[in-house]
Amino acid sequence: xPSYALLRRRRSGxxxxxxxxxxxxxxxxxxxxxxxxxxxxxxYLALGLPVGLLALVxxxxxxxxxxxxxxxxxxxxxxxxxxxxxxxxxxxxxxxxGVAPLAAAPLAALERHRLRVxxxxxxxxxxxxxxxHAVRFRAxxxxxxxxxxxxxxxxxxVAGPGLVLLAATWAxxxxxxxxxxxxxxxxxxGPVALGIGHARSVPDALPYCAAGLAAGVLxxxxxxxxxxxQAALSRTLVEPRPDPLATRLVEVTRSRSRLADGFAAERRRxxxxxxxxxxxxxxxxxxxxxxxxxxxxxxxxxxQAVARAHDQAKTLMADLRELIRGIHPQVLTDRGxxxxxxxxxxxxxxPVAADIDLPHRPPQAVETAAYFAAAExxxxxxxxxxxxxxxxxxxxxxxxxTVDVEDDGRGGARLADGTGLTGLADRVAVVDGTIRVSSPxxxxxxxxxxxxxxPHPQEDxx
Length: 462
Prior knowledge:
This protein has 462 residues and is an alpha+beta fold. The protein has helices at residues 2-70, 79-115, 133-142, 144-178, 180-185, 202-238, 244-295, 301-327, 330-335, 337-347, 364-384, 421-429; strands spanning 192-193, 198-199, 352-357, 390-397, 400-407, 434-438, 445-452.
C-alpha cells in the first residue's frame, strides 16, 4: 500500500508538472499573440491607403459623370440644361454599370489579399473552376457575387484612405494636445496654434490636455472598432459564399461515388470468395467424380449415376465460372480493361470485331464502369437487335475514354425503353461519364460511352 501511494503521488506530480508546462506554453503563445495581432491590424490599416486610392481613382472616374450631373441642381435654369444633365446622368449610369463589375474584380482580389494580413494562418483561396471566357464575362453582370465586389470596391475607396487619414490626424493631434500646457508655458506670450483653435495661457491649454488624454484612450478604441468593422464588412462582400444547392449537389455526388465504390468492392469480394472457395471445392468434386467414373463400369447403374453427376458438376462449374465473370472478371483485375474487353468479345455468341487501343490502364473505377457498360451494351445487342455482327471499339483520346458498341441489327433502341441502357447510364454517370445512343429504325445501332480518363495511370489497389 505505501508503494502504491508513492506511485500515485509521483504520477500526480508528473501530471501537475505537465499541466504547468502546458499552461506556460499557452500563456506564452497568448502573450505573443497580442503584439502580432496589433501589428497585423496596423499593416491592414496601412495597406488601406494604396488599395483605397487605387479604388478611388478607378471607381471615382466611373462615377464622376453621375456626381457632376447631380451637383448643384439650382444651376439648372432651362430645359436645355436639364436635358444636358439627364444625358450626362444616363451616360454616367451606363458607364458605371458597364465597367464597374469588370474593374471591381481585381480590386476585390487586392482586398482579399489585404484581409489575409489579419489572419494568423491565412489559407490560399481555392483555384476557380476553369470556365469559358463568355461564361466568366456574363457572370460579371449576372451574379450577386460580382455586384458585392462592386460594393466592396466603393467601401475600400471610401474607408481605406478615410481610416488612414483619421489615424494620422489622431496620431498628430493627441501629442500636441497633451503637451499643450507645456508648449504654451514656454511660448513668448502670443497665441499658440493647437491644431483646432488657439491657446494664450496655460489655463486655456488645460482643456486641450484633457481632450488629448481622452482622445488618446477613446481614439484607439474607436479606430480599432472602425478597422474591424470595415474588415468584417469587406470580408462579407468579397469572400465567396457557398451555394447551398451546389454544396448539396457535391455531397450527393460524393455519396453516390462512395456507394459505387463500396458496391464495386463488395462485388470483388464476392468474386474472390467464389473463386477461391466454392469454385475450388466444386473443381475438387468434379475431379473426384471423374476418377470415380473411370473406376466404375460404364454400363453399370452406379457408373451411369456417377457419370450423370460428373456431367452435372462440369455444367455447374461452367455456370459458376460464368457467374463469377459476370460479378467481376478476374482478368479485369489482373490484366486491365483491354484484355477484359477482348475476353468479352471472345465469349460473345455473335461475331465481335474488337479494336482496343489503350495506351495505359485507366483508374480502377473507370475500368469497372467501362467494362460493365460494354457488357451491358453487348447483352442488349444479343437480346433485342437481331444483329449478325457487332463491333467493339475502345480508345483514349484527349484524356477521355470512349467505348463504342455498334451492331447491324434492326435499331430503334432508346434510353427510355428500359432495356438496360438506363442502368448503364446510371453506372457511367458515377464516374462523370456520358452515354449516347444512335439507333434509327432499321439500324445500325451505336452505343457510345465516354468517361473522363487521366493521361497517366494511377496507382490503385487492384
